[in-house]
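Here is the promised in-class demo. Please do not try to memorize the tokens; focus on the logic of going from shape to residues.
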């Protein structure tokens, strides 16, 4: 878990290589963990749209049923954290959800033709 936090918050490291959170020895906040989950799920959404390779296998595989599962979870996570995160992050999350939804609709339309 600390490795995930370090990757996400690496910019805040001092010369010692330790983050402020590590120095304070505080556990990761739930909203921060949810942001990590959001980003991972969004990446899975893009991968299952067939627009990027799946990170685990580096192959393109489209599966719109999987995308149908991702979007509501992204929306739920957003609802949980939106009042606890900076405005720019809120906009980023809303845009991510909207873009996945739009691309899902486009993929469905192409499949019907």
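The designed amino acids, position by position:
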């Amino acid at each position: 878990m600390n490795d995930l936090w370090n990757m996400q918050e690496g910019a805040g490291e001092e010369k010692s290589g330790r983050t402020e959170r590590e120095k304070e020895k505080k556990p990761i906040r739930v909203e921060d963990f949810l942001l990590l989950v959001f980003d991972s799920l969004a990446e899975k959404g893009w991968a299952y749209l067939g627009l990027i390779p799946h990170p685990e296998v580096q192959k393109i595989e489209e599966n719109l049923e999987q995308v149908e599962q991702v979007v509501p979870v992204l929306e739920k996570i957003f609802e949980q954290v939106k009042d606890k995160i900076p405005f720019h992050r809120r906009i980023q999350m809303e845009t991510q959800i909207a873009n996945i939804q739009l691309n899902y609709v486009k993929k469905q339309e192409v499949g019907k033709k």
